[in-house]
Amino acid sequence: MADLEAVMDEAGLTNPEVREFVKEYAELTGAERIEVVNASDDRRLLEEAVAAGELEKAGEGRYYSRSYHKDTARSEERTIVATADEKDRGVYNNWRPSSEMKPKLHDLMRGASEGKTMYVVPYLMAPAGNALAPWAAGVELTDTRTVVLHMIRMARVGVQFVNDLEDPGHFVRAVHVTGDLENLGQGTDRDKRYFVTVADERTILHFGSSYGGNALLGKIAHGLRQGAYDGWASGKFLAEQYMLIGIHDKETGKDYHVCGGFPSASGKTNLAMMAAPDALGERYHVSFYGDDIAWLWVDEASGKLYGMNPEYGVFGVAKDTNETTNPNALASVGPHTDCIFTNVAYNPTTGEVWWEGRTKEKPKDRHGWLDWTGSPVADRKDDDTAPWAHPNSRFTTTLANVPNIAQDYDAPTGVPIDAIIFGGRTRDREPLIRAITDLAEGVYDGLTLGAEATSAAEGKEGILRYDPMSNRPFMAYGEGDYARHYLDVVGAATDQPIFAHVNWFQRDATDGHFLWPGYRDNLRPLLWLLQLKNGEVEGRRTAVGIIPTEEELDLEGVDIAPDDLERILSIDTERWQQEMDFREEHLSQFDRMPDEIWEAHRRVAEELDAEA
Ligand code: GDP
Ligand code: PGA
Ligand code: MN
Ligand code: MN
C-alpha cells in the first residue's frame, strides 16, 4: 500500500502518532486500501452502501440493514478487559493479562481485512471544549462501511478531532476487524470472537462482529469501558451507562437535571425521549441530553457535580416504540432523518419497516414483508408466532433529529446534576420509587441493582442478576475500587445529588400485567423526587428509602387500579429481608469494598429487622 501516506496527506490527517497507528494496523490486517472519514462523507458513503447492497432504502431518507443472524447483540462472555496489572481483575470485567490478549488479537486480525477498505474514523466522545475532552479523542479503524455510517451518527467524526491534540499520542486506538462472520462459531465452544479493551494502553481490539454494540468502538468500548478506566486512573471522572435529562418547570422557571442507570434495554432511551404526560405538559418540559452514557465530574469553578453525554446519536431499541409509548422516538426516525434501522421487519416493495409493538396488529397484507432474517413472512406456517423483528432490533439516528433534544446539548459546559437514579426490570419487590439521601447508601443501592437481563446481550433474556450501577457488562476494573472512586468523585461535590431507585416493571403475579403504566407517566415519580429534594414533600420513611404517599404523587389522568397503586407504593419487608442475604453474598465477592458500603448494608439490614 504505497499510497497510504498520500491518502492521509490528501485527507489532511496530520497527527504523526495517528498516522503511525494507521500504518501499523493497515499492514497487520492486510487491508487493500485506506480511506480517512469525515462526517461530511456521509452522503457519499450512504450511496455507496446502497449500491453495494449493504443498506436498502426505507422510504425517503431512511435506511435499512440486516446483520448476520448470529450477530445481533453484545456478547458478554467474549468481552474482556486486559491490562498489565492483575490488580485490575474484577468479578465482571473478565480480566486477562494484556501480554496474552494483544498477541491473540493480532493473530486473529492478521490478514483478516484482505481485499477490503480500512476506514479511518477519527472521533471525539465529548462536546468539543468539554473539561473531559482530553480523554475523549479516538480513532476507530474498521473494515465495514455500515459501521462507519453508524459511527458518523453516534459520535462527532472528523480529522479536526485528532489533528490538534495537546499530546498527539493521547487518543484511543480502536481497531475493529469484522472477520468471516459465517465461520466464527458464535456461541459454541469454538467461538473465535474477542472484544478486548487493553485499558492501560488505551487500545481497543474487537474481532468477529459487525453488530453496533460490539463494533461501534467509540460508544461501548471507549465511552464506557475505556472511559471508566481513564476516569479512575486520572482520579477525575466517572463514565457510566446513564441517561441524562433536563426537567424544566415553566411555573417556577427552574431547571433540573437527572441522570441514571438502567441495564441495556430497560428504559433509558424512552425516559430521555419522554414527552410529558398531557396533564403535566403545560407546566413541565423534559429535554434529552443523553440516553445511554454519561461522564460525570466535579466542576472546579462551582464545586458542583456535572454531567455530559459523550455521544452524538441514539442507538435505540425498536420493540414497542409507537405513537403512544414514544412519539419523539418515532419522529426522530421519520422521513429525511437519514436514520438506519437494523434487524426490524422490512417491505422492500413499499420501503416500510415494522417491529413488534409498532402497531397493535401486524401489517394486514403479509405479502411482500421480510422478517429480520430476510425470509418472506408470507411463507410462514399459520401457527408460527416467532417475531418478525429481532427483539434487539434497533434504530440509529443523530441527536439533532430528536424533537426534545436540549437546546444546549452540544455546549462544552455539561449540566449540573440534581439526582441520580437506578432501575431495571424487576418484577417484584422494588417499589415505583424509593429516594435515598445518603451518598454511601445511594452508592450501595447502585451496587446492589438486581434486574432481569434483556435481549441486548446474547442468551441472557429474563435471567435475574445483579448488575452494579447497570455497568456489569462495562466494568473496567475491580468493583471495590470502583465503589471507592464513585464515593470520592460524587463525595467531592458541594451540593450532593439525591439518589433514588425506580422500577417501572413490577408485574402482577397472576396475569403478569405491568402494575405501572410507565413511559410518559415515569415523569411523575421523578417530579416527586425533586420535590422531596426541595423539601416540598416528606414521603414515608422505610428501611430502604423514602417512598411517596399516594397523595404526594401527581396522578392526574393516570390509568391505574387502586390495588396496583398500593402495591407499587409499599415495601414487602419479609421479601426485602430475604434479599439482604443475597446482597451480602453479592457484595462479598468483591475485593476492597469500602467500609462505608458495608456500613450502609448493615444499616439497611438492621432497619429492616426493626420494621419486621
Ligand atoms: P434502554 O436500552 O435502556 O435505552 O431501553 P429503551 O428505552 O430502549 O427500552 C427498552 C424496552 O423497554 C423497549 O421495548 C421499551 O418499549 C420498553 N420500555 C421502556 N420504558 C418502559 C416503561 O416505562 N414501561 C414498560 N412496560 N416498558 C418500557
Ligand atoms: P441500550 O444500549 O442500553 O440502549 O440498550 C446499547 C447496549 O447497552 O447494548
Ligand atoms: Mn447501553
Ligand atoms: Mn437505549
UniProtKB/TrEMBL annotation:
Keyword tags: Cytoplasm, Decarboxylase, Gluconeogenesis, GTP-binding, Lyase, Manganese, Metal-binding, Nucleotide-binding
UniProt cofactor(s): Mn(2+)
MF (Gene Ontology): phosphoenolpyruvate carboxykinase (GTP) activity
Binding residues for GTP: A265, S266, G267, K268, T269, N270, R394, R425, Y519, R520, D521, N522
Domain Phosphoenolpyruvate carboxykinase C-terminal P-loop positions: 237-605
Gene3D superfamilies reported for this sequence: 3.90.228.20, Phosphoenolpyruvate Carboxykinase, domain 1 (3.40.449.10), Phosphoenolpyruvate Carboxykinase, domain 2 (2.170.8.10)
Entry binding sites for substrate: R74, Y211, G212, G213, S264, N392, S393, R394
Enzyme class, broadest EC rank: lyase
Keyword field contains Metal-binding: yes
EC number from the UniProt entry: 4.1.1.32
Region (Disordered): 365-390
InterPro entries noted in UniProt: PEP_carboxykinase_C, PEP_carboxykinase_GTP, PEP_carboxykinase_GTP_C, PEP_carboxykinase_GTP_N, PEP_carboxykinase_N
Catalytic-site annotation from UniProt: S266
Pathway in which the depicted protein is active: Carbohydrate biosynthesis; gluconeogenesis
Quaternary context: Monomer.
Role of this protein: Catalyzes the conversion of oxaloacetate (OAA) to phosphoenolpyruvate (PEP), the rate-limiting step in the metabolic pathway that produces glucose from lactate and other precursors derived from the citric acid cycle.
HAMAP family, per database record: PEPCK_GTP (MF_00452)
Protein name (record): Phosphoenolpyruvate carboxykinase [GTP]
